[in-house]
Amino acid sequence: MIVLPQLLFLFQSLPVEVPIKQFNEWNRTISRFIWQNKKPRIRYKTLCLPRDKGGMSLPCLENYYKAAQLQYVVYWCKEDYDAKWKELELNQLDIPLQPLLGDKTLKTIYSSKLSDLTKIPLNIWFKEICNSNLERKARLLRWVEHDRDFRPAQLDMRFKELTRKGITSYCLISSDTGLDSFQQLQENHDLDKKDFYRYLQLRHHFDRNIRILKEGDLDLIDILIDAYKGKIQRKVVSRLYLCLQLYKKLSTSYVKCNWEREANIILTEDDWLNICEINASTTSSGQWREFAWKNIIRFFITPRRKYLQSGRTESGHCWRQCNNVMAGHCH
Ligand SMILES: *[C@@H]1O[C@H](CO)[C@@H](O)[C@H](O)[C@H]1NC(C)=O
Ligand SMILES: *[C@@H]1O[C@H](CO)[C@@H](O)[C@H](O)[C@H]1NC(C)=O
Ligand SMILES: [Zn+2]
């Protein structure tokens, strides 16, 4: 709790690439501190999970770093966010920077002209988009004029004009139900009647190549779309962080499996999450919460485990002298 804000401040202020080696080292330092140089009894990855999923909410510094860098990408898309740095960054190419977010090839084309300041967030962005399988959905972030797959925009100079009228990103002129109607665009963006044919071209392209079915969880693309639509106000970094954590697909299912094996029962995923959640929220005593957590996460060294480790029969006896041998976690 003390270290995180200090590092976060650096992550947000310094446009540097932090090598993976450094995160490894921090991971090791933190782990050594938690376990006081003894052998870790619970996976580090498990500790990083949120409490209601059976973890200890230990911050993942790597994702905080990424979230801090991606924050700037969010501000690029947020029209009402004004800053000197933003103008400098957005005007370094002969096209705006935002369309790059939806098209990796476009970014590669301009790659050599980008400053380090923008290259780092962009690289992180594309890596995360790829990891979380969002490349298709990212097309929503392309701009009509700069969409390389939309031929009419390259042939017809009128689309430049339309950009000026606010026909920029697909996500701004569409909703879950599809591209906005011509009437809507006419009202909001002052289109001419003679643009109707271009609208049909655009809608055809949108329905075939851009449109995507709405899916459940909040993801990185949603955050940028919210930014475009002026919806995000605060807590950008923590929203980004949550999304990044979600994609790691970590879970405590392996602990659940151990319980199932030991008790010879079947627990559904919901049962298990319920147990974790209840244990994390039942009592206001931190000490008891920790104890409950240690129980369900199988932290303690049972007589059985002791016996298996040492091979001595007497270590398999329950320490409360109830004559139980080889007691496991259920005991
Ligand atoms: C550090 O720990 C986090 C949390 O489990 C993990 O996701 C990350 O990959 C680790 N970083 C490195 C560089 O190993
Ligand atoms: C933790 O979960 C177990 C299993 O559901 C339950 O028996 C126990 O009462 C819970 N402990 C707390 C403190 O909520
Ligand atoms: Zn006993």
From TrEMBL:
Keywords carried by this UniProt record: Signal
Top-rank taxon, per record: Eukaryota
Signal peptide: 1-15
PANTHER family attached to this UniProt entry: REVERSE TRANSCRIPTASE DOMAIN-CONTAINING PROTEIN-RELATED
Protein name: Uncharacterized protein
Annotated source species: Sparus aurata
